[in-house]
Specification:
The N terminus is likely disordered. By secondary structure, the protein is mostly beta strands. It contains one helix and 32 strands.
Length: 337
């Protein structure tokens, strides 16, 4: 009930964050929920966030340090579907350079430089790269590239899902079926800066980080494409997502017709994350980390649990008793229970 919840929040407020490392720039959570990869200049660090259950050691320790050559700055980090390999997007003198690193390697491998983008297959650990007119399969052992498609005019992004490659060519969203060697025009996109982000429950998510907009394309074609204001998403399960813009947080169950508004704030929302045990939503503003209880009541209490500036990323361990976050102070963790 509401009283019990409030008592728990008061207990949570008494906990003090524990600093793990200096502030991070890029931040990515592994699909298995056990690791966070974050960056500082030319360094990438892997943080163990195990729950401490089933004989695991409790998280909070840096378990890997990957150092790129000096002068490189890490822009983005992506985990492979099996959580054992990361793809590092870095930059030096205005030029992009990708690196591949497996958690059992001693150092990262430098990937081919003639590509404008590189991504994992969503269903396995194959690596695909592309330039403005061609798509390649990259061998992760010897880094040889094999051209698998050549017909594009202005490729800007791809997303590989099994035998299908979704791609944006100019302003047209297309599907390339590798098993049939067939390409189909799906629809026109509404932004020049869209990136193909995820496929969830036969819905393709495209996000424009510049305009902070998102399109949700129903690949079964039963629903019209939704165009929404959004700057980030958090996957809740195999049919639902949480997404937010600067002022609002929504949950969208793809079995329903439209997203549900959870809260609207008068101060900017920086990050949001769903608690693993459900019914509690944590989010951050420029001054604090807050929690909101989600139930059937019209009144939803919002309470500050940590006073910290500009928390840009939030992630729970699998059990939900420890929250990891990145702020102006640094990479930190706080025990919630």
């Amino acid at each position: 009930n509401g009283t019990t919840f409030a008592e728990k929040i008061i207990l949570w407020k008494k906990a003090q964050p524990e600093k793990i490392d200096f502030p991070a720039t890029a931040w990515s959570t592994s699909p298995d929920g056990n690791k966070i990869a974050f960056s500082q200049n030319n360094l990438v660090k892997i943080l163990n966030i195990n729950s401490g259950l089933l004989g695991e050691l409790e998280g909070g320790e840096i378990i890997k340090l990957i150092e790129l050559p000096k002068g490189f700055t890490v822009n983005k980090i992506d985990f492979s579907p099996n959580s054992k390999t990361i793809l590092i997007n870095s930059e030096i003198s205005g030029k992009t350079q990708y690196w591949l690193y497996s958690l059992d390697w001693s150092k990262p491998l430098k990937l081919p430089t003639n590509l404008i983008g590189i991504k994992f297959n969503q269903n396995d650990n194959e690596i695909y790269g592309f330039n403005h007119s061609e798509i390649f399969l990259i061998d992760s052992q010897n880094l040889l590239t094999k051209k698998i498609w050549s017909a594009g005019k202005n490729l800007t992004d791809i997303l590989v899902d099994g035998n299908k490659i979704y791609l944006i060519d100019g302003k047209t969203l297309k599907i390339l079926d590798l098993s049939k060697n067939l390409i189909i025009n799906l629809e026109e996109v509404t932004s020049d800066n869209y990136h193909l982000t995820e496929i969830i429950a036969s819905n393709l998510l495209l996000i424009d980080n510049t305009k902070k907009t998102m399109s949700i394309v129903d690949l079964t074609r039963r629903k019209k494409t939704l165009n929404l204001e959004a700057k980030a998403i958090d996957i809740l399960n195999d049919h639902s997502i949480l997404f937010y813009n600067d002022w609002e947080i929504f949950i969208y169950d793809f079995n329903k017709d439209a997203p549900e508004l959870i809260t609207r704030m008068g101060e900017m929302i920086l990050a949001a994350s769903w608690h693993p045990k459900g019914r509690h939503l944590f989010f951050s503003t420029q001054q604090a980390i807050k929690v909101i209880e989600l139930d059937n009541r019209e009144l939803r209490n919002i309470i500050d649990i940590v006073q910290d500036k500009n928390v840009s990323a939030l992630r729970f361990n699998r059990f939900g008793d420890i929250l990891y976050f990145n702020s102006e102070t640094g990479v930190e963790k706080i025990k919630l229970q």
